[in-house]
Structure prediction request, 732 residues.
Amino acid sequence: MNVRSQISMVFHLDKCIGCHTCSIACKNIWTDRKGTEYMWWNNVETKPGTGFPTAWEDQQKYRGGWELQDGKLRLRSTSKAKTITNIFHNPSMPSMDDYYEPWTYTYGDLFNAPEGADQPVARPISQVTGEYINIEAGPNWDDDLGGSPVYAESDPNLKNLTPDQREQLFAVERLVFFYFPRICNHCLNPSCVASCPSGALYKRGEDGIVLIDQKRCRGWRACVAACPYKKSFYNWSTGKSEKCVLCYPRLETGQAPACFHSCVGRIRYLGVLLYDADRIEEVAASPTDQLVDAHRSLVLNPRDPAVIAAALANGIHESVIESAQSSPVYKFVKEWKLALPPHIEFRTLPMLYYVPPMSPVMAHRDETTVGGVSEEFFHDIEDSRVPLQFLANLFGAGHQGKVLYALKKQKAIRTYRRAVTVGDIPMDVATAMLREADCSPEEAEAVYNLTSLCTFEERFVIPPMHREEAIEMMRDPLEHKGSTGFGFMESPRRGL
Amino acid sequence: MTIPGPFILDQIFLVVFPYVSVIIFVLVSIRRYRREAFTFTSLSSQFLENQNHFWGLVPFHFGIITVLLGHLVGFLVPRELLAWNSHPIRLYILEGSALIAALLTLVGLTSILLRRLTDPKVRAVTSRADWVVLGSFVVQILSGLYVAVYHSWGSSWFAALAAPYLWSLVTLQPDISPVASLPWMVKVHMTSAWLMIAFAPFTRLVHILVVPNPYLWRKAQVVRWYTKWALRRGSA
Prediction:
């Protein structure tokens, strides 16, 4: 057992209101620079929809992530031999057209235009060329277009849905969508790291944050192609790739990342998970239907004395273990089994989990109205407006079991809480539902508390990072003061 | 005032230039790597334009690498090269492949130039230094092709004449007599090569210095331990 700690995340999709506050918080801090205008380290997608970059989930097109070949993991986009031939032109590299061409407006015209019959207009200009452009796409072009034939119907997750299920998803008055906020998953088996010819990408041993060493990145672009979530971006101005840094300078000073901190719907949770690093390869190569369970089995119980001993032996600080014991992520992922990894079939073992959304599932249509109460316990989940298969494609590698489990439990807890607070449902019905959903009343209360009443401190259990101790060994802390961030004070000037 | 004779010019272009160029190359590269490691990148523009990129960059790189390797072979093992060329068939094969590689480079360079000139996004990230680099490649490749076509069997006379000259530079006993009588186009080719070496460290050509060799033998996943690294640094 090789115990390591990982800062992990849970996004509770049922609470996401799609306000994009997270995206803006991130943009203002990290990607408001030349060359990064088009990047959204954090973005919020409408599902069904094509997302950002367009149809990123379609690995036939983007060739990201790993695939199993004769039981062995291979990168879809590259290999040691292919790196030599493809370094001049990466055939799996997306281009700016797959994202969008960033633009601004000629705001000066509003003030400087000569007096005339018409109102002055600020015209859009490209932030790459400075020329006038016709805007053809944007970072969130299909926002709220859940039923659109152009966008929603091109969602790769619809691939194995029956025509009936598709119709169900797009029928007028039954239209449904939910939001899918995304950041870098800080995977355990990151394909971006494995693909980098220069070895510039790395996973931090202490907390598992995946970073790109800006001084070693040579712009070979392999990570952009290899990441199946398309969360590694190429800065076209500096010629370096960049990605979500999980706001590590904030984490190191005990603050939640900006997107977590600013989340209006309070959908985000962050905490430490302890995992067994020796089993990563074996788990990542599991058969598709066992991936979710195998991934979950990597996560170790931070209260198990054997795990604690192994963690201490591996140099994990006691305070980090304590932090792991009160991690909200551990509860959602391991104890309650409510949170599921996105597209685990890409085999990168993402460490950002999602609680599948209940809202689009709950309501069903009677003759003319949309109702919320059903006679049977769980009949409306299998009969839901969003076909279960769609959610299974997103969160269960195409297999419905784990998603159904999470949705049933959520529904049972809702019914139970309704019985407690409103009282219009008999308590014996509610507890019977809980039993069927593999949930005790105590667990239901705990889930309810962490979902609905959670405080800042309960949502974000940030471990002490002990960077100061490491730094003290190297240099005078006073001298080092103020030098967090990218860690070097050279201006990120484009080379000639 | 007298115009310096060809001998003086040869001395400047073929003796002074090489030494000055190599010194500039080494010193500037080291200084740039130590002070501006951030600027060591390929500055790829594939992200901005993904179609013509293939037809430019792939033939250019495969062509130029083959051509440079050919020069290197002539420099390192001139005797063996001459022995190989002693059979006309083998000479034709070698010269033919070299010419194909050079033409491949020319095709690639042409589409790179057209792409840089016509695509507005790529032009937006093209600096003056990029034009200098591309312009010098035009000179270098056209002069090289001219020499290959009009002063044939270069692989043999390179081994016989240029290799001794280059070795005389390496051994710090510069002797231009082997190349002094070569046609002027060959001298243009050599002089512009030395110039390119001199300005390479100021341009995007530095990406040649950081070609990724460790990838071939490193493990797939890279983990950096700050604490362990700090301990190592602290004890050192």
Chain B has one domain: 6-211. The first strand of chain B starts at residue 223 and ends at 224. Residues 64 and 229 of chain B are 40 Å apart (CA to CA).
